[in-house]
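Could you join me in thinking about how sequence relates to backbone shape in a protein? Would you write everything just below, so we can both look at the same thing?
***
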Amino acid sequence: MAATRLELNLMRLLSRCEALAAERRDPEEWRLEKYVAALEDMLRELKKQSSKPAPELLNEYSRKVDFLKGLLEAEKLSSSTEKALANQFLAPGRTPTTTKERTPATKTVHLQTKARCTGKMRSELLGTDPLAIDDSEELNIRKRKGLASDEKQSAVELDAVLQHHQDMQEKLAEEMLSLARSLKNNTLAAQNVIKQDNQTLSHSLRMADQNFEKLKDESDRLEQHAKKSVNWLLWIIFTVLK
């Protein structure tokens, strides 16, 4: 069945949205959000038509629109950890939107977004520049995408992107594990120092108590000795006076 005018317009707008999503956008950029809202309206109208596409194709359109909507919602989250977690649950399209695509554009956008979130998380942990990491990763992905000349080449490059992303995740996991081990070692060392300080303090308190008891005993002994001396002195004076 030939595509209706509404379906063709939806495909064109969807392709435009996928291209915008692949670009690094300014935080004040408003077009993608408006376009996605228009896509939702067009998709609802398309589902109501009598000559609507096959259910599998409608599901694919819905999948891509939901992906773009979820992508925008994830970008509004405050922390990179929340963004990375939200992106993990996004489901890109399974088929290309246009015949010019070798790999679904939403899948490429998904990889780019996950790479950015991973880079930002790593930069927050290590104190590096997230923009430099994002630029490098996005440039590599764009170069791989631009070099695709046929379906075989595109598949090879997609594997390279996936492998690159997996390597980055493994490296990030190793760095986080190393930081956790270092934190654990520092915590144990601090606990040992505190324990030793507590033992030293307890020993000092015991010594102070013992010294106080000895001082008290010595003071009592001197007091008794002083009393005896005074008594003897009085008896001597009394005897002399007699």
